[in-house]
Amino acid sequence: MSLNAIKVVSEVNRSPDETFDAFMSDASHWWPLDTHSVSPYLGEPAPDTVVIERYEGGQIFEISKTGENRIWGIIIDYEEGRRVAFRWYPGLSEAEATTVSVEFEATDDGKTVVTLIHDGWEARGDQAAEIRKNYVEGWAEIIDGRFRNFINAN
């Protein structure tokens, strides 16, 4: 059974370049590291830092309190100011990766529409439907909540 992609759309009060830059460079400020990172699941304190490398083949990773890089994903498509896509597998093997794409589109009034699509649920096997269900709420909270609030306040 194929599961539908998750789609989250949010409008923010900044240009696509500013919005893209905040998404890529300021994730440590808007990502909920205390609840949505690998370290706490390993019984460790939440990290302070998440890094998104700005090139195709780059990694997305948290830096644990002990200095260990814990990979969340790999950038598979990168267009500065416009789009980033990545294979997503925080705390998992790359064989279990799903695909996330985020696009940044200008509106006529100088704002930006951010569209996140998360697909490829088949990689998560028998638990895909339950995992997807958790991501529906999670991505809405992160993109249309935390990220939108961060970018609109800065």
TrEMBL record:
Similarity comment text for this entry: Belongs to the AHA1 family.
UniProt domain Activator of Hsp90 ATPase homologue 1/2-like C-terminal: residue ranges: 15-144
Full protein name: Activator of Hsp90 ATPase homologue 1/2-like C-terminal domain-containing protein
Record-linked Pfam families: AHSA1 (PF08327)
InterPro entries on file: ASHA1/2-like_C, START-like_dom_sf
Entry-linked SUPFAM superfamilies: Bet v1-like (SSF55961)
Organism: Boseongicola aestuarii
